[in-house]
Specification:
Blueprint (H helix, E strand, L loop, with lengths): L3 E3 L1 H7 L3 H7 L4 H9 L9 H10 L4 H4 E3 L5 E2 L4 H6 L2 E2 L3 E5 L6 H14 L3 E5 L8 H5 L4 E3 L2 H11 L5 E6 L1 H4 L2 H11 L5 E6 L17 E4 L2 H5 L12 E2 L9 H27 L6 H16 L8 H4 L8 H13 L7 H4 L8
Parallel strand pairs: 5-9, 5-10, 6-7, 6-8, 8-9
Antiparallel strand pairs: 1-2, 3-4, 10-11
Length: about 350
């Protein structure tokens, strides 16, 4: 049962407004979202839930549930993204954040990195004035102004190029993204990785803001307030890349152990804020110190912000990240000051 997963692409095509559709048939949108990203394994889902989803998509359970062949990951060399919620190649990723939480900086950095790696980048320019959007265009190969124009441009490029496509969430609501993906599917083009960003911040207050996603990155207001950038929440972000029987076992094991540490660290931070660090027992003090260092390590300088931070951008491979995170959790960085680990690349950098 571990190698089963939902056919997210089918759900996206058949039920683009899954949030409202799920509520109307008595399903919790959060549950559906967790099934799509793999946070809840299909084998643990209620039959009623799966049957309701199949009914919404007007398909059979055999069509809805597929064998979980390994989903290919795009390695961004951004530590927190690759470790906790990897980017699914050819999938759709949603960025959940209020305005000003750094989501457009993360997108600009990804466009820069992926363009360097040979991806063709496309931006569907949103209507109206939105602060930070112009910064995205610096690393975009093609700018379009409508779904129709986007479809034509991607068709002209053909299915041989790996494409990165960025669009505003409003095109999900209107059905434009569904229309685009259906058109490309009909033409046999499957090489488009789509980023959906909400420029208004409305998605923060919804349980399932974009419909079916392979990856969801949730930005954390507490991390933003403490300048822990990129402020993508390890605890709130999920990806289908780490789902199923064929996932990388070392990656999964390190990720789960790191999540456990960060979850407890968050709890201890609240206790320290009230009673002071001296109130923590010795065993919890070690957990607090290592969680503090892990959180600092997960910050990272970006290439697109070098002019502002005066720090050179850093790339860290997934294998380096896994090694470093294990070192921190095992106590190898206990003697290092927290400030030494902020905005660095690898531990050896």
């Amino acid at each position: 049962m571990d190698d089963l997963r939902l056919n997210v692409g089918l759900l996206r095509r058949k039920v683009p407004n899954l949030t409202s559709a799920a509520r109307q048939v008595g399903l919790r949108p959060a549950t559906v979202s967790n099934l799509c990203t793999g946070k809840i394994p299909v084998g643990r889902a209620e039959v009623r839930t799966l049957a309701a989803l199949a009914s919404l998509a007007n398909c059979t359970l055999d069509d809805l549930i597929i064998r979980g062949e390994k989903i290919e990951m795009i390695e961004t060399k951004i530590k927190t993204l690759d470790l906790f919620a990897p980017l699914a190649k050819g999938g759709t990723v949603g960025l959940v954040a209020r305005p000003g939480m750094g989501q457009l900086v993360v997108l600009a950095e990804l466009l820069y990195r992926l363009k360097q790696d040979g991806y063709q980048t496309i931006l569907l320019m949103p209507e109206g004035e939105h602060r930070g959007v112009e910064d995205l265009s610096e690393n975009v190969d093609i700018i379009t102004h409508s779904i129709g124009e986007t479809s034509r441009k991607i068709t002209e490029l053909g299915g041989d190029r790996e494409l990165i496509f960025v669009a505003d969430r409003t095109h999900v609501i209107t059905g434009g993204i569904q229309e685009l993906q259906e058109n490309l599917e009909d033409k046999g083009i499957h090489s488009v990785t789509t980023f959906l960003v909400d420029l208004t911040g409305d998605v923060v207050d919804e349980n399932l803001p974009y419909g079916p996603l392979e990856t969801l990155w949730q930005f954390d207001a507490d991390l933003v307030a403490r300048h822990r950038y990129p402020a993508v929440s390890p605890l709130g972000s999920v990806s289908s890349v780490l789902e199923g029987a064929h996932l990388d076992q070392e990656h999964f094991a390190v990720q789960q152990k790191a999540l456990k540490l960060l979850r407890r660290y968050r709890e201890l931070r609240s206790l320290v804020a009230v009673g002071g660090i001296d109130r923590l027992p010795a065993s919890e003090l070690q957990t607090f110190r290592r969680g503090e260092r892990l959180e600092a390590y997960l910050t990272q300088p970006f290439y697109v912000t070098e002019a502002f931070t005066k720090k050179p951008g850093a790339s860290v491979s997934l294998q380096e990240t896994l090694h470093d995170v294990k070192e921190i959790m095992n106590g190898a960085a206990d003697s290092r000051e927290v400030a030494e680990l902020e905005l660095i690349g690898s531990l050896q950098s």
